[in-house]
Design goal:
This protein has five domains: 3-68, Helix Hairpins, CATH 1.10.287; 92-326, DNA ligase/mRNA capping enzyme (D-amino Acid Aminotransferase, Chain A, domain 1, 2-Layer Sandwich), CATH 3.30.470; 331-406, OB fold (Dihydrolipoamide Acetyltransferase, E2P) (Beta Barrel); 423-598, DNA polymerase, domain 1; 612-679, 3-Layer(aba) Sandwich (Rossmann fold), CATH 3.40.50. The protein contains 25 helices and 24 strands. α1 (12-32) packs antiparallel against α2. It is globular. The structure holds 8-hydroxy-2-methylquinoline-6-carboxamide (JCF).
């Protein structure tokens, strides 16, 4: 019997109590220790069992039962709650100098108080971008939760905070203080935020602007059902009023104790020494910033010794013993000078906002993408608008939203151009699609240039020295139209270009020559077939022996390739059907581009080597994977469906339509017995 199952003769009350205790332990393991004790399915089972008992015996329901997170009815308004210990915010340091000044102030104050300090020890932690809350526990049970408000009085958001799974309704362990106020930051993880917005767009509902507003807004819902639907999380970082708890000497120990009570504390806090330690931590967290699952806007340093904290005290809103060291803001406000359309490699028209330059995410930004016409219209960005621009990590800057109140009179909606801004060909936007495209294909100079850039890029043909500028020059001078033309370029033509010396021209011709020796997958990737990225190109290269096989492949064969679905298959077919593409490929091969033939895998001599084999029906003596491995070890290729190229069909039990098709096409059929005999050594 597992721990969750009912004990014989257990009363409903006893079982409910036992399940609650068990669920409490699992919550503790999951949230405080970040180490799930049981699979989700087992947890769900316990939870549903408890809920069932409570439904049958409503008198057994308790306020802190895990089933009661969304217990409360919607509230009419938020009650006020005054904080016994003020809820402080943090002073900011925006650079090293301000941090050093903070550290100096701390030292000087302590010295003035007769405390001799050496290097000061700090607790450092990431600073979450969310909403601060204070939770009060009495006799180990959640009593209320409040927002910061003005620091003295906040709003009662208990009904909403209860819905956050990581908030313990009851504290862990037996030794819990009679009164304990904890402080933490409610936030919305990025994936939850993205998913929420994806659904909102799908349903035509309002989207959330950023995870920070999302967290604050979620807490201000009157109906806890609404909050429960928001993917919120929380980290706890400090305490307010406590009674009957002999506090540890250091902040680090407070954090450890909080974790012991069942609170979710950031796993990333660290003890650091002095300004140097703070800066090292700042750099380390800064590097990870984009990879964290939540937004942070800096790191926090706190004097570790609590007696020193007390000595230092606080000024109006902020403690003197802590500071927030901010990262460069990832969102800023600026104005849109114009909206233009860029044409990409596949003809997609990308609206781009030309901005008044603004420093955001650590760089100066003057363009921001609007992704596609659908997005442009959804956000309704117009020339003259004041907008919020976001640049996170190395991602291209984007317009988050328009501040509508600041829209100048007469700013008009941006319409999709009906002709390509580059080649004047028709622009189409298929019904229901967000993306509009120039239909001209490689006749459009923009698409040609992008296709050439892609062809020359590092993961494709890797032609050193052939960058954006040069491609622009070559196309504009009429020297090249397709990738094949690159290989006909002469020294004279190149040196005739502006800013092109003899040495650079020679280097480029060299690079072109050198990279004629390539690989099949690089070549496929370089062709720039829509939907065929590096991984798909590699897959195709492995599954097709050579370019001819791929060129002549039908849909069915393409669908056998791992990761190739109907959309990709369709793109590949369309690409190779297009006469222009076939001509370019022929010319590329004529110019001498080549790659090594795949080494035949023929570990075991066998009549099966080189054969294309299809397995159908259930095999009695081995699994399909085993059969496949045996075949491949003999140099055979195993595919999923029968076509003209199939050499042998191996039939197990209930072979079905593949056998019929093999017979139609006159392909050799082998029974499992015959197949197994072929595998035996010396069967040749
Ligand atoms: O993560 C935060 N936003 C955060 C805010 C972390 C802290 O350690 C804080 C805070 C606000 C005030 N500590 C204080 C004292």
């Amino acid at each position: 019997m597992t721990k969750g199952e009912q004990e014989r003769d257990e009363s409903p009350a006893a079982e409910a109590a036992r399940l609650r205790a068990l669920i409490g332990e699992y919550d503790y393991a999951y949230y405080a220790l970040d180490d799930p004790g049981v699979p989700d399915a087992e947890y769900d089972r316990l939870f549903r069992r408890l809920a069932a008992i409570e439904t049958m015996h409503p008198e057994l329901v308790t306020a802190t039962s895990p089933t009661q997170r969304v217990g409360a009815e919607p509230v009419g308004e938020f009650r006020e709650i005054s904080h016994v210990q003020p809820m402080l915010s943090l002073d900011n340091a925006f650079d090293e100098d301000e941090l050093a000044a903070f550290d100096r102030r701390v030292s000087e104050r302590l010295v003035a108080a007769g405390i001799s300090t050496d290097v000061i020890e700090y607790v450092a932690e990431p600073k979450l971008d969310g909403a601060a809350v204070s939770l009060r526990y009495a006799q180990g049970k959640l009593e209320f939760a409040a927002t910061r408000g003005d620091g003295t009085t906040g709003e009662d958001v208990t009904h909403n905070v209860r819905t956050i799974a990581a908030v313990p309704l009851e504290l862990h362990g037996r030794d819990v203080p009679p009164v304990l106020e904890v402080r933490g930051e409610v936030y919305m993880p990025r994936d939850g935020f993205d998913e929420f917005n994806r659904l909102a767009v799908e349903r035509g509902e309002k989207t959330l602007v950023n995870p920070r507003n999302a967290a604050a807004g979620s807490l201000r819902q009157l109906d806890p059902e609404m909050t429960a639907r928001r993917p919120l999380a929380i980290f706890f970082y400090g305490i307010g009023e406590t009674q009957g708890w002999e506090l540890p000497q250091s902040h680090a120990e407070v954090l450890e104790a909080l974790r012991g009570f069942g609170f979710r504390v950031s796993p990333d806090w660290q003890l650091v020494s002095g300004v140097a330690g703070c800066l090292a931590y700042y750099a380390q967290v800064g590097q990870r910033r984009d990879r964290l699952p939540y937004d942070i806007d800096g790191v926090v340093y706190k004097v570790n010794r609590r007696d020193w904290q007390t000595e230092l005290g606080a000024v109006s809103r902020a403690p003197r013993w802590a500071i927030a060291h901010k990262f460069p803001a990832q969102e800023e406000m600026t104005t849109v000078k114009a909206i233009e359309f860029q044409v990409g490699r596949t003809g997609a028209l990308t609206p781009v906002a030309r901005l008044s330059s603004v420093f955001v995410g650590g760089v100066t930004v003057s363009n921001a993408t609007l992704h596609n016409i659908g997005e442009l219209h959804r956000k309704d960005v117009r020339a003259g608008d004041t907008v919020i621009v976001r640049r996170a990590g190395d991602v291209i800057p984007e317009v988050v939203k328009v501040i509508e109140e600041r829209r100048p009179a007469g700013a008009s909606i941006v319409e999709l151009p009906d002709r390509c801004p580059v080649c004047d060909s028709e622009v189409v936007r298929p019904e229901g699609e967000a993306v509009a495209r120039c239909v001209a294909g490689l006749i459009c100079a923009a698409q040609r240039k992008q296709a050439l850039r892609h062809f020359a890029s590092r993961h494709a043909m890797d032609i050193e020295g052939l960058g954006e500028k040069l491609i622009e020059q070559l196309v504009d001078a009429g020297l090249i139209e397709t990738p094949a033309d690159l290989y006909a370029l002469t020294l004279d033509e190149l040196t005739g270009l502006e800013r092109m010396g003899e040495k650079s021209a020679e280097n480029l011709l060299d690079a072109l020559q050198r990279r004629k020796s390539t690989t099949f997958d690089r070549f496929l990737f370089a062709l720039g077939i829509r939907e065929v990225g590096e991984a798909t190109a590699a897959s195709l290269a492995t599954c097709f022996a050579d370019l001819d096989a791929l060129r002549d492949a039908d849909e069915e064969q393409l669908l056998e390739v791992p990761d190739v679905g109907p959309v990709v298959a369709e793109r590949v077919l369309a690409f190779f059907k297009e006469p222009h593409n076939r001509t370019v490929i022929d010319k590329l091969l004529e110019s001498g581009i080549h790659w090594p033939e795949p080494a035949p895998i023929r570990a075991v001599e066998s009549p099966l080597s080189g054969k294309t084999v299809v397995l159908t029906g259930a095999l009695a003596t081995m699994s399909r994977d085993e059969a496949k491995a045996e075949l491949e070890a003999r140099g055979a290729r195993v595919t999923g469906s029968v076509s003209k190229k199939t050499d042998i069909v191996v039939t197990g039990e209930s072979p079905g339509s593949k056998l019929a098709r093999a017979q139609d096409l006159g392909i050799a059929v082998m029974t499992e017995d015959e197949f197994v005999r072929q595998l035996e050594p010396g069967s040749a």
